[in-house]
Design goal:
Blueprint: H1 17-30, E1 51-53, H2 58-63, E2 71-77, E3 88-89, H3 93-98, E4 109-111, E5 116-119, H4 126-130, E6 133-141, H5 149-158, H6 170-178, E7 192-195, E8 211-214, H7 217-226, H8 239-242, H9 248-252, H10 254-267, H11 279-292, E9 299-304, H12 313-338, E10 346-351, E11 355-356, E12 368-369, E13 372-377, E14 382-386, E15 405-406, H13 407-418, H14 423-430, E16 454-461, E17 469-475, E18 479-486, E19 492-501, E20 504-510, E21 521-528, E22 531-538
Parallel strand pairs: 2-9, 2-10, 6-14, 6-15, 7-8, 7-9
Antiparallel strand pairs: 1-20, 3-5, 4-5, 6-13, 10-13, 11-12, 16-17, 17-20, 18-19, 18-21, 21-22
Helix pairs in contact: 6-14, 7-10, 10-11, 11-12, 13-14
């Protein structure tokens, strides 16, 4: 456990007014990035040789299955959620002693089990719990916690140690590994999409931000209705504008994103009433409609703020929890209206940068603390509690009890079991070996990752064009395509195809003498949908 030799760290409470305000200013600066813009489709260069489509195959039918992939929805609780008032240890007298004013009384709880309960403000979740749609992970944290909003969120978003600065996010690294040609042949469907927050470290890779960030539902509605985004071509050299540079490649492909978003939004329909005056519910209604419209995006992120509850916490925090509960319940009811199986394909997960102190403060609130619960929702995930409750038996007024579950183990479990990635890839993405939590979510079998946007099907001699080799490939989505011939060292010798194509199956007739290629062994590489595939060929 990390002990504090002083009464508190700077910025942890509102008593440190200068540091606390500075921390929030840093947090605001972090959130200004927005990945929006316009770009036309790429040019056509076919080398004068025929390129023809062939009839759909069973593989292409599988590739075009649309929404068969599992989806992850991240629900960010911005400000540091108070765990002790989210999941309550029933009958714990110490809890009521250290929180004489803001504790949730037993009469205001619904039971998770004989030991734990949740406030009645979250009662819309009770049916989900009873129907095996919900799990609780208690007391999630990390060693040597940082109590700055800005720094702690960067740790949680990057999945780093508290003493290490990592400038990429855990989802960004995962998607970067799956979309190795993201810059060369960007997909027309955003790999990830944020609503209600701006470009986030969670989605940043070394070279790009892998998510389309839409700063508000209002901006989203403009895209969904018109297929257009804001023009960012006038960016200059101010610090603000320079910091937008790393997302320009995402902005430049937003023309294609806008069209696919518009089409998916038109296909999908919200079939339940979402709660009004609930910003989170408005975002989740958009996500549900895009999922039902078969957009094809694997990861979504929504946001609800206000969890920095330093004063007058009791009623306000319960109102926030009610917004989460009603939004999540409506979201899964809506998915079920679209298809009975659809809720089983969507996992939602809350997370926050840190928890709150176990003691209430003099302003009837709580200050920045350590462990906080994560809530998981989804059809077929089961019902259960992971981790141990915070030990309140011998409370330290200057430090919080130790956490029980490292947040990186939750991430690793989601990457491996829910999204179907190999342990080797998970270790690479997470920067080390983080134990997977057995049974937390249903494991995807067989593991598939995200490699289904295109497929290099192989090659064979042409039956109709003597001396020509047919190279076959399939695409699940419209987008730019590059087919290149490489030497054995991986150097590009010829670009055979550089074109924007509709989704479908294709054959390229490769005639070596037309391309001045001598007999020998080569490789050919397909880049499409942001992904890369290679095979060996003898000519």
């Amino acid at each position: 456990m990390c002990k504090d030799t002083s009464k508190h760290r700077p910025g942890r409470t509102t008593d440190d007014s200068k540091e606390h305000q500075q921390d929030h200013q840093l947090w605001s600066r972090r959130d200004f990035l927005s990945a929006t813009g316009l770009m036309g489709a790429g040019g056509f260069l076919l080398g004068g040789l025929p390129l023809r489509a062939f009839q759909p195959t069973p593989l292409m039918a599988a590739l075009s299955g649309g929404n068969s992939d599992r989806i992850l929805v991240l629900i960010r609780l911005d400000g540091g959620n108070d765990g002790l008032n989210t999941v309550i240890q029933r009958g714990n007298s110490q809890y009521y002693n250290i929180r004489p004013t803001i504790a949730i009384q037993e009469s205001n709880l619904w039971a998770l089990n004989t030991e734990l309960g949740m406030p009645l403000s979250t009662q819309p979740l009770q049916n989900m719990w009873e129907e095996d749609f919900m799990k609780v992970i208690l007391n999630v944290g990390y060693p040597e916690p940082n109590y700055s909003h800005f720094r702690s969120y960067d740790i949680v978003a990057s999945a780093s140690d508290s003493d290490t600065v990592v400038n990429t996010g855990w989802i960004g690294r995962f998607l970067d590994s799956e979309y190795a040609a993201f810059l060369e042949t960007p997909p027309t469907i955003p790999p990830a999409l944020q609503i209600g927050v701006q470009a986030d470290l969670v989605f940043k890779s070394d070279n790009a931000n892998m998510a389309l960030a839409i700063s508000s539902p209002e901006e989203f509605y403009q895209i969904a209705q018109s297929g257009q985004l804001y023009n960012t071509s006038a960016l200059g050299n101010t610090p603000h504008e320079l910091e937008l540079a790393f997302v320009r490649q995402t902005a430049n492909s937003a023309f294609r994103y806008a069209n696919t978003i518009k089409d998916a939004y038109a296909r999908g329909k919200n079939q339940v009433d979402y709660p009004t005056d609930n910003y989170l519910a408005e975002q989740m209604a958009i996500v549900a409609r895009l999922i039902k419209g078969k957009l094809g995006t694997r990861v979504f992120m929504v946001d609800i703020g206000g969890f920095d509850t330093h004063a007058n916490q009791l009623d306000y925090h319960q109102s926030l929890l009610n917004k989460i509960a009603t939004a999540v319940k409506a979201f899964y009811d809506d998915l079920a209206e679209g298809s009975a199986d659809l809720p089983n394909e969507v996992l939602s997960m809350t997370f926050s940068e840190f928890g709150r102190t176990i003691f209430e403060n003099g302003s009837l609130g709580t200050d920045h603390g350590w462990g906080t619960p994560m809530l998981m929702f989804g059809g077929g995930i089961g019902q259960g509690v992971t981790g141990t409750y915070q030990d309140l038996s011998n409370p330290d007024p200057y430090s919080d009890p130790d956490f029980s579950v490292d947040f990186r183990s939750v991430y690793a479990t989601v990457l491996q079991d829910w999204l179907g990635n190999s342990p080797e890839l998970v270790n690479y993405v997470m920067g080390g070996n983080n134990p997977v939590i057995p049974g937390l979510v249903p494991a995807l079998q067989p593991a598939s990752g995200d490699n289904n946007k295109c497929s290099l099907l192989g090659h064979n001699p042409s039956a109709n064009l003597p001396g020509s080799i047919e190279i076959k490939y399939a695409m699940m989505q419209d987008g730019p395509v590059k087919l290149q011939l490489l030497d054995q060292g991986g150097h590009v010798l010829r670009t055979l195809v550089d074109v924007f194509q509709q989704r479908g199956s294709y054959v390229f007739n490769f005639l070596p003498q037309v391309w001045f290629v001598a007999p020998g062994v080569y490789q050919y590489r397909l880049m499409a949908g942001g992904q890369v595939f290679k095979r060996e060929i003898r000519v």
